[in-house]
Write a structure and sequence with these properties.
The structure is a homodimer. In chain A, the strands form five sheets. A seven-stranded mixed beta sheet of chain A has the order 2-1-9-8-7-10-11, sandwiched between helices. A seven-stranded mixed beta sheet of chain A has the order 15-17-18-13-12-19-20, with helices on both faces. In chain A, strands 21-6-5-22-23 form a five-stranded mixed beta sheet, with no helix packed on it. In chain A, strand 17, helix 13 and strand 18 form a beta-alpha-beta unit. By secondary structure, chain A is of the alpha/beta class. Chain A has two domains: 237 residues, Aldehyde Dehydrogenase, Chain A, domain 1 (3-Layer(aba) Sandwich); 180 residues, 3-Layer(aba) Sandwich (Aldehyde Dehydrogenase, Chain A, domain 2). The first copy, chain A, contains 16 helices and 23 strands. The first copy, chain A, is globular, with a radius of gyration of 25 Å. Chains A and B meet through strand 5, strand 6, helix 8, helix 15 and helix 16 of A and strand 5, strand 6, helix 8, helix 15 and helix 16 of B. Strand 20 of chain A pairs parallel with strand 21 of chain B.
């Protein structure tokens, strides 16, 4: 049964007066549960509990935090069919996708657990004392990454599990040693409640402090705003629109103490089809692009929203086949009505631009949340003069940019803003010939893909899911992969500290047997002093 | 001969109409050289050159960049007495201090060179392909830190060499692969010109591109403002006042693409004297504090501006001796008249506060730039209610906070804002007994020092010179030590890239023989695929 309450640490609370429901997608039927928006008192309580919990939680060992994360994963799996059904209903996403997302979510939690068990992530660095150095002795200095304090996570509409309540933001913030307060997305408050309950249960079972996790229902902006402005909140994570991310970022800069907002916002993920590669299989490449474009109704943050080619016979053939493939695509249900309406309006608008030529739309008309796949074309030089043409249209839409030659290609690539990814489809000869062009687009992306589509973001060590502004608010960090933990820590140095005071990672004996950088060299050895 | 011109890459330029001079300190005599402020055209030229240079400079190998940094150090040393004399004259600092600062500057450059020669700093991380994984294969993903683009460095008034033209900011930005544009501090434009010339010469000698370094004279805010707002500038470093740092930070947030501003601003660096330690040697501790306080006329960013004790007989004895020691201190020349005037006004003001008791001033009156050392006292509870009492007074001033007991000590420590450092003077028994209090202050500092004074910032691997806001704009980074390089890079991931396209750090063969994280484990082995 869905209770609709806020989860304040180990308590349930429903003191507010504003309530809301969630709806099945695409049918739009009211789903069970009336959700009570957190009122000011409850927001304050969640933060106060998080602050108190932080004093305890930050002292938990890596193994203790790992056990907490593993138990969260177990508890989410134990929710079984109830979670899958609710998430499918609230998002309209098919069961296979939701099951996959659950696997990604629990996999992420367990990956962060293994990171904590391994212990190396904290970047322990030691410079030992040089008491005899002249003119002045060197003290003993040791540094490591430590948590920052309560983190607020805004859940994402397009990934109700993997980028939401127990998603990568929460997992990495908890792994780092920070309490988390989730601001619930109103479209999947039921899914959130189930997962948030699982986290609270895991916290109790593993002896974590009351307040290490809270979940606040919200349908109005005020809840999120109060959280971001609260002096005890130290960091914010968000996945969503450029407008939403930018608003939170600006809010956080207005505080007496500005705090980081890690907002993953949007990206057109340009796909560059280089000539020799294109010549090898224009029709097949067109089919691949069309299918990547419509994956998840075009709502992945790495949807290929722009395709760049250089004029040639093969490019014409590619364009023709792409148009045919787009016609064959079947419109899929989008996540909610706002996204569908926005998609429909924006595609209509772009076709009215004088520089833009409509190439094709799906033969099936869009209807009831189902966005109609479409593709348009613009000449390279027109794009260079009006790069705003390529602003993201969230959904199954791509813009084909056709360049007159290699020079124009470089200019086109130089005109792009920050992107999560770019893809280069190229033979080795293409890569060599167009190296300067590729390095141009590399400068504005977080991940550069060769001969692959941008959809599909591995959760691993080497992933960089974060590009220069405006694709995120801070391209120096990733929101996917183990390095996501680096968003919620800061380095602290200890000078001449007694061994007993030092965290385990920095103690003489190296009880965790981790790799440490000692006097500039990596070592697993203990320190003798 | 001082030419007074702007250094735009390999050109000298003086097209502007505003000129200024520098003055000897403390005498105030005009020094040779008329400096021409950069005009708008010259600012634009420096940025355009930096942008063009970036395309070349970012492709230089670690060894090439290391050779550039080592040559800068050599060229600075080759300036010999001319540099020392000019820096002493412009800053009023004694020769020993300036010689020491030069050693720190060249040492930093060579440390970054050795970091580049070693090559590990770029955090090469590789997850190899898993072509047979089900349900979907894993691509090959490789990530490393890469430069961000042109960096603007504002030189600091209190360190004319080590935190200025070729100081830690410039050294780390160049090491990372970014061109640097220096905005000159008008009080030591002559010192800057000599050092900037050395950098330009080193760039020519080592084959670095024209524009990898520029230096712009400025006496008005407009030069710095134009630089921070320029779309091709990607990062900013600043050391100075809270007001100055905050202004630049806010300016950078107003850009279409916000950029990071690493401003090191101010800090009172609380020193906590715990009871057992205090009992052991109250008089000696008082003498140590007094001397640290007056070091460099109190103008180090780690000056001990606040001392915290718990009421006791030993504390009273400490207070009495501290007062005596302060009386004996001889006022020293401050860096320039604004600092001196501000110091004098602020100390006069604090003594008028009802909660504050003046304990002692130097027996020697302040005069002509020489700030009069002073110490005041406030009760713990009064500080908790009015923490603004402890706002930094830049100069040889300390505030003694006397707590009524252990409970009040914790409340006092919880009332501090972000600090570069805190020092705990304590026996091991004190550390154990007051662990909670120490962890409270640890939460707001970048470096926690045991039984030492905060002055003295080692340039090493484990240094963290950067604490939470407002001591810096971003406590997740350090401005001293090798990790300062992390301010000017971002991670970029390459997916399924041809080996030939990859940077050396990520190539299969591991030609640099660096440690890499491969499939989660550290390794120096090549990759077989």
């Amino acid at each position: 049964m869905i209770h609709g309450k806020n989860i304040l640490g180990f308590e349930l609370s429903a003191k507010g007066e504003t309530t809301f429901h969630t709806y099945s997608s695409p049918a739009g039927e009211v789903l069970p549960g009336s959700f009570v928006q957190a009122n000011a008192e409850e927001v304050e309580c969640a933060v106060a509990k998080a602050k108190a919990a932080y004093a305890v939680y930050k002292t938990k060992s890596g193994l203790e935090k790992a056990s907490f994360l593993r138990t969260i994963a177990d508890e989410i799996e134990a929710l079984g069919a109830e979670l899958i059904e609710r998430a499918c209903a609230e998002s309209g996403l098919p069961e296979g996708r939701i099951t996959g997302e659950r696997g990604r979510t629990t996999g992420q939690l367990r990956l962060f657990a293994s990171l904590l068990e391994d212990g190396h992530w904290a970047e322990a660095t030691i410079d030992t004392a040089l008491p005899d150095r002249v003119p002045a002795p060197r003290p003993d200095i040791r540094k490591m990454l430590l948590p920052v304090g309560p983190v607020v996570v805004f859940t994402a509409s397009n990934f109700p599990l993997a980028f939401s309540t127990a998603g990568g933001d929460t997992a990495s913030a908890l792994a780092a040693g920070n309490p988390v307060i989730v601001k619930v997305h109103p479209y999947h408050a039921g899914t959130n409640e189930l997962v948030a309950g699982a986290i609270a249960d895991a916290a109790k079972k593993t002896g974590m402090p009351d307040g290490v996790f809270s979940s606040l229902n919200a349908i109005e902006f005020s809840v999120g705003e109060t959280l971001v402005l609260h002096p005890e909140v130290k960091s914010v994570a968000f996945t969503g629109s450029f407008f939403g991310g930018k608003s939170l970022y600006e809010l956080a800069q207005k505080r007496k103490e500005p705090i980081p907002v890690f907002a993953e916002m949007g990206s057109v993920n340009p796909v560059i089809l280089l000539p020799e590669k294109l010549l090898s299989a224009p029709a097949q490449l067109a089919a691949t692009m069309a299918s990547s474009l419509n994956m998840g109704a075009g709502q992945f943050c790495t949807n290929p929203g722009v395709i760049v080619v250089v004029e040639s016979e093969a490019a014409s053939s590619f364009q023709a086949t792409l148009a045919e493939e787009i016609k064959k695509l079947v419109p899929q249900a989008m996540l909610h009505n706002n996204i569908y309406k926005n998609y429909t309006t924006r595609t209509e608008q772009i076709f009215t631009k004088t520089q833009v030529e409509k190439l094709a739309e799906s033969d099936t008309e869009g209807s009831s949340l189902k966005g109609r796949p479409a593709v348009a074309r613009v000449a390279g030089w027109d794009f260079v003069q009006h790069p705003e043409i390529a602003e993201e249209i969230f959904g199954p839409f791509s813009l084909l940019i056709v360049c007159s030659g290699a020079d124009e290609l470089e200019k086109v690539l130089a005109a792009f803003d920050g992107q999560l990814t770019a893809s280069v489809l190229a033979t080795n000869a293409d890569v060599e010939k167009y190296a300067t062009a590729i390095k141009t687009i590399q400068e504005v992306v977080g991940r550069l893909i060769f001969n692959g589509v941008p959809t599909g973001v591995e959760v691993c060590y080497a992933m960089q899911h974060g590009g220069p502004y405006p694709s995120t608010t801070d391209g120096r960090f990733t929101s996917v992969g183990v390095d996501a933990i680096k968003r919620f820590v800061r380095p602290v140095a200890f000078q001449d500290a007694p061994d007993a005071y030092l965290p385990d990672e920095l103690k003489d004996a190296n009880p965790l047997k981790i790799w440490r950088r000692i006097n500039s060299q990596l070592s697993q050895e203990p320190i003798k002093r």
